[in-house]
Design brief:
The protein is mostly helical and 157 residues long. It has four helices and four strands, in the order ααββαββα.
């Protein structure tokens, strides 16, 4: 994937360098917002960038009949998809998306890389190995979509 992005950068880089800084900022804004939207949609569909489904979360064990816990079938990472948590940033030289909050960033990194972490922030909380669930990435067709976005910006007619 990195090789494809380098090829795209070589192809479009010269065209972008000829643009005025204000136009480059507009293009970077459009790219960062589109990339954020693509990742939010993919996270909402519970899919990795390669199209495979996320590993389902483990369910908590049921309590006895008298104190049974209710289970919800909510999708994972609902809050992480919100604009306050997954932000788009841009300037005239780059476009990016990320998690600016340190706590949210830690949670996202644990799932992104499939690391081990405590279930809660207490010292006696168990440590669990989380499966890899890629939150931020490029889906296979995004390279063409990015090229189309840049060309549409260069030729607004």
């Amino acid at each position: 994937m990195a090789d494809e992005l380098e090829q795209l950068e070589d192809w479009i880089g010269g065209l972008i360098q000829q643009m005025q800084p204000a136009e480059r900022r507009k293009l970077a804004r459009a790219v960062s917002l589109d990339l954020r939207r693509d990742n939010v949609d993919r996270i909402g569909a519970q899919k990795n960038p390669d199209g495979s489904s996320y590993t389902p979360r483990k369910r908590a064990p049921l309590r006895s009949k008298s104190g049974r816990m209710k289970r919800r079938a909510d999708a994972m990472f609902q809050k992480l998809r919100k604009p306050a948590y997954l932000t788009a940033a841009h300037d005239e030289s780059e476009a990016s998306i990320g998690f600016p909050n340190a706590t949210v960033s830690r949670v996202a990194r644990v799932h992104q890389d499939g690391l081990r972490d405590r279930v809660a922030r207490t010292a006696d909380a168990p440590i669990v190995a989380y499966p890899k669930r890629v939150l931020v990435g490029f889906s296979p067709g995004y390279r063409e979509r990015l090229a189309d976005l840049v060309l549409a910006h260069l030729n607004p007619g």
